[in-house]
Structures are given as structure tokens and as C-alpha cells.
Amino acid sequence: MLKKIASSLLWLFSLPVCIYTLITYLLSYTLVLDHWLAGFIMMTLPFAMFGCFLIAFTWLFIRPARAILPCLILALGYPFIKRTIVFKDPQKAENQLSVFSYNVFGFYGGDYQVNQEKADKLMAYAIDYEADIKCFQEFYNLGDNKKFRTFTPMLKENPYVVSNSERDNQGLVGLAIFSAYPIINHRGDTFGSYNANGYLMADIVRKKDTIRVVNIQLQSMGIRVNRVVKDVKGKDYEEAQKESKGIISSLKRGFEQHADEVKLIEKVIDESPYPVILCGDFNETPYGNAYGSIRDRLKNAFEETGNGFGFTLNRSPRMVRIDNQFCSEHFKVLDFQTFSEIPYSDHFPILGRYQLQRNK
After folding, report:
1. CA atoms within a 13 Å half-sphere pointing along the CA-CB vector of 246
2. 322, HSE (Cβ side, Cα atoms, 13 Å)
3. Residues 250 and 225 sit within 8 Å (Cβ to Cβ)
4. Domain boundaries of the chain, sorted by first residue
5. 88-356, which class in CATH?
6. pLDDT, tens digit, for every residue of 110-153?
7. What is this structure's pTM?
8. Which of 42, 43, 104, 50 is nearest to 73 (CA)?
9. Which run of H or of E encompasses 146?
10. Exposure string (b/e) for 23-52, b if CB count within 10 Å is 16 or more?
């Protein structure tokens, strides 16, 4: 009798989890709900799939026939596994184009004295890394300060540059694109009052081809997971509860902001007469609205030729990929790398190698 009751309760628990997982699939595939709640639900997709996996595994030992439903739902979600983990080998080809993207945390410009050694290594790495195109988020340049005169050394290998700020010598620049090839057109915009958030577009002439490179940084969700963990460890549960409520509020606000920001970026992509490469800091996981919207238009470089999980955040919650590169069908993605061994910023740098296929 007790076994029958337990089996019934497990089935009653299984059905809502399966239905919820299907809802996350529906939103991620179609974006039918234009509401901040959709972004929150989509973000929970890996947890929903893991719940289905646990349910399927449990039923296999109790009543195998009932494992069919969660197994079918997991099978429907197979395309989302590519957003989480891939194992691909890099390819070699002639006429490669390398695109480097890095959120450099302002080179610790606001707290240089405390982080001087790390800041110096970060600047040296960003300057010395060789790539045809370099896209930076939270870039910092201060012409009056020798230590933060970052534009000049960058121009040695990448002499063409655009930024989303007219205050290149006065401090925070935000987004910057350095190119080894001429830039014939550019424009950009900022999101909100913080100059670092926005998009920057550059049309670049490389030999006989012209491509459009878009560098973005969506607004931060302001999630402070480390504070919650710290409060729980210190048994300050009241403060932990306040911080948790703050996270929910930040997510709500962030998803609403991202929806508006992505519309502007979609327009830049749709109106482009040239093949597009888009990169930057999404401040959102691969299961969110922003990632899904861009993915409807462009293919993701990590999904094409990445290796492993590709986590890009060098702070709590760490195990997330929020920095990305996308490209249009005109490009073949040869290689994509996340340099998790470079610890200088609160993000890891990423690199994509591409080959433009003219027949596309």
C-alpha cells in the first residue's frame, strides 16, 4: 500500500516537471511570450532538464514504462545540449580571420593601487595578443596617465580603431574595436546611463571583402551570488533572504532591459549589407532571450567548434558562459577557444577563427 502511494506521489511530481520542461523548450524555440518572466523561465532550462533526467532514472528502477515520458522530453531537448557542452576539433584553412573578444574590467582603473600587478598583466596580455580584430568591453584609456595610455600600444598591430565614446582621453571608453584592416563605417549606441553598456558596429574592408563586426555589452543583471553564499556561511539568514529577493528583482529588471537592447542589435544585423560577426558580453546565459534572439539570425561559434563547457565568468557563479561570438552563414567557424587559464579580469578572453565563404 505504501509503495503504491509513493509511486502515485512520484508520478504527480513527475508530470509538473515534465510540463515545465516542455514550456522552457517552447519559449526557447519560439519566444512566444514577450515578458520578463519568459527570460527567467528560459534561464532555468538546464535545471528542468536535469530534473527530467533524475525522474527518468528513478522510474527505470520502479516502473520502466513510466520512464518513457521524461526520456522523450529529454530527447526533444537535445538541441539545447549544444548550448551547454560540445566537443569539436579545430579546423585548418587558408585565409583565416581571427576575432578576439575580452571584457577587461576597465583594467582595474577604479582600484588600480590594490590590483596593480594584476592590472599590468591584464594590459600587457590585451596589447600583446595577436588577432586581426580585437573587441573589448569595459575598455579604459586615460591619455594623461602613462599607465592607462592603452590606445597607443594597441595601434601598433591594429592601427584602425573605433569606440563608443568621444572621451577617449578622459577615462572610461566602454566598447572598442581595433582592426588590422581599414574601417570604412561605424556607429554605436549606449544602453542606459552607464557608458560601458551598448553596441558598437564597424564595417571593415579585408582584401576584396567587407564584413560587419558588432561588439556588444548588454546591461548587467547585478546578481550578487557571492554575497548570498557569504551570508549563509555566516548564518546571517535574514540578510541572505534580502539578497535573494534582490537577485530576483535584478533578474526581472535585467530581462526587461535586454529585450529592448536586443531589438536594436537585431536591427543592426538585419540591415547589414555585409556578412556579420557579433561578439561581446551578453550578461546572460545561453538559455535566455538575448542569446536565443541572436541565435535565430546568426550561428554561435562555441556551438560550431567549441570544446567543453566554455565557461567565461571568472567570479561567482563562475559556471556560466556569458561571453559569446556569433557569425552569419557566410562564415565557416574554424575554431573557438575560451582562455580560462588567463585569470586577470573577471571574465575570460575568447577567440574565434573564421573563413569567409564567398559562395554563401
Report:
1. 13
2. 23
3. no
4. 2-81, 88-356
5. alpha beta
6. 788 888 999 999 999 999 999 999 999 999 887 777 778 888 89
7. 0.85
8. 50
9. none
10. bbbebbeebeeeebebbbbbbbbbebbebb
